[in-house]
Design brief:
The chain has about 425 residues and is an alpha/beta fold. It has 15 helices and 16 strands. It has helices spanning about 15-25, 55-65, 75-85, 100-105, 170-175, 185-195, 220-235, 250-260, 275-280, 285-295, 315-330, 345-350, 375-390, 400-425, 425-430, and strands spanning about 1-5, 30, 40-45, 65-70, 90, 115, 120-125, 155, 160, 180, 200-205, 240, 240-245, 265-270, 300-310, 330-335. The strands form 4 sheets. A 7-stranded mixed β-sheet has the order 2-1-3-4-5-6-7, sandwiched between helices. Strands 13-14-15-16 form a 4-stranded parallel β-sheet. Strands 8-11-12 form a 3-stranded parallel β-sheet. The chain is globular and about 60 Å long. It binds iron/sulfur cluster (SF4).
């Protein structure tokens, strides 16, 4: 039997690992980003809710003779099983599930699975993987030509996050304690990837510096990890994008400067203390500013991500975010419209919010009214434009950049409204 793992558009790290597990169990398995592929059995890796509405993905699901879905969308399998014609959904981590599922089909004997029986969802509880060290991933030949924010691949060094941000699926999917891989397991994998032509690697995992976390941050483990990876790849080919502002200090930032491309990305989210509290972010604008300044003093460039249109965000909260950006002088800005990912607390908050109070459905009546976009999109658009003028070296917004930003916020607004539509459709079954 031929098993095909389909990871639409980009190879997700999880799909490579599951491919490695099946290969080592003796299965004929291949991995592809191409949605037109055929196979006796398809494993489909999905990371975003809006993928459930993608016509090509829906067509693949209805055409495949047998198909199972995994990835973060499995957090709320009722939606996946309602939207796609699939045979089962992996609801948690896939390593312990995949071989039994492929070899025996869906069954209540398998932990962490959901499937339909007589139209009713049967669901078994997932069990978190206790040992994250795993076999060598399945490395496709074209992994080396993939580019995700500049990296050929994002690798996982640990799972879980100590944070409990309402909008984030990481603690819901992976838990709030930290499980780390061993250094040897990670380095062996990266050596093999390099041998197969991969040059640029990014470390994923919510907050990079939580690698090796025991009862407290293990700086030594994190710094040793970066040093080891840089020795294999060269520092210009390694990035550790995501960090929490309260888990960095001089030593960590010095290691980032020395062993990586020299950037960090902080999830700043908002300049409003009230919105940060509502998000359960566990940080303050002051803490974020301190971290940005510390990074700059250490010679590390900073990208900041911001969320606009969070339920309850008033004009003055949004203004506080703009003020923050002017003070912080970030080298890069990522702005997004708050997305109520199914399975997160924000999904319930957004469902409880009357549409007339949701800036996603309110037409913008200010400076950008001629563009006919929602208030949430207008804030996002304006934040992107402001981000360009608040860089240490301000950038001119030319016509092409203006159009690209506008297109981006329109797409975001459309996708988030689609997610809201799904939440409303399945409200009775998921809340
Ligand atoms: S947003 Fe970042 S800090 Fe917050 S829960 Fe997610 S991974 Fe953790």
């Amino acid at each position: 039997m031929k098993t095909t793992i389909v990871s639409p558009k980009i190879y997700t790290y999880g799909s490579l690992v599951l491919g490695g597990i099946l290969r080592d169990r003796g299965h004929a398995v291949s991995i592809t980003r191409d949605l037109s592929s055929e196979g006796d059995l398809t494993l489909l890796s999905l990371f975003s809710t809006s993928q459930l509405l993608d016509p090509e993905i829906r067509e693949l699901a209805s055409r495949a003779p047998r198909i199972y879905v995994g990835g973060p969308v499995g957090l709320v399998p009722e939606i996946v099983l309602g939207e796609l014609e699939v045979d089962a959904v992996v609801v948690g981590e896939g390593e312990e599930v995949v071989a039994d599922l492929v070899e025996g089909g869906p069954s209540e004997e398998i932990s962490g699975l959901a499937f339909l029986r007589d139209g009713v969802v049967v669901k078994t509880d997932p069990i978190p993987v206790s040992d994250l060290d795993h076999v060598m991933p399945l490395i496709p030949d074209d992994l080396r030509s993939q580019s995700v924010r500049g990296a050929n691949v994002y690798i996982e060094t640990h799972r879980g996050c100590l944070g409990g941000c309402t909008f984030c699926q990481v603690p819901r999917f992976f838990g709030r304690s930290i499980r780390s891989r061993s250094l040897e397991n990670i380095l062996a994998e990266v050596r093999e990837m390099k041998r197969r032509g991969v040059t640029r690697v990014a470390v994923s995992g919510g907050t990079g510096s939580l690698f090796g976390y025991g009862k407290e941050v293990n700086k030594e483990a994190f710094i040793t990890l970066l040093k080891g990876l840089a020795e294999i790849l060269g520092p210009k080919n390694l990035s550790v994008p995501d960090m929490r502002v309260d888990f960095v200090d001089e030593e960590i930032l010095e290691a980032v400067r020395r062993y990586t491309v020299g950037w960090v990305f902080f999830g700043i989210e908002s300049g409003s203390p009230g919105i940060l509290r509502a998000m359960k972010k566990g940080t303050t604008p002051e803490k974020s500013l301190e971290a940005v300044e510390l990074a700059h003093q250490s010679g590390v460039k900073v990208g900041g991500s911001f969320i606009v249109g969070y339920p309850g965000e008033m004009e003055e909260d949004y203004q506080a975010t703009l003020d923050f950006m002017e003070e912080a002088m970030l080298e890069d800005v990522f702005a997004s419209v708050a997305e109520p990912i199914p399975g997160t607390p924000l999904a319930k908050i957004a469902l409880d919010l009357p549409r007339e109070d949701n800036p996603l459905y309110r037409e913008h009546a200010g400076e950008y009214r001629a563009l006919r976009i929602s208030e949430a999109e207008a804030r996002c658009f304006n934040l992107m434009l402001t981000g360009m003028s608040c860089k240490p070296v301000p950038r001119i917004v030319d016509d092409a950049t203006y159009s690209a930003f506008l297109q981006e916020v329109r797409t975001q607004g459309r996708d988030v409204r689609r997610v809201m539509g799904l939440l409303e459709k399945y409200k009775d079954r998921i809340v």
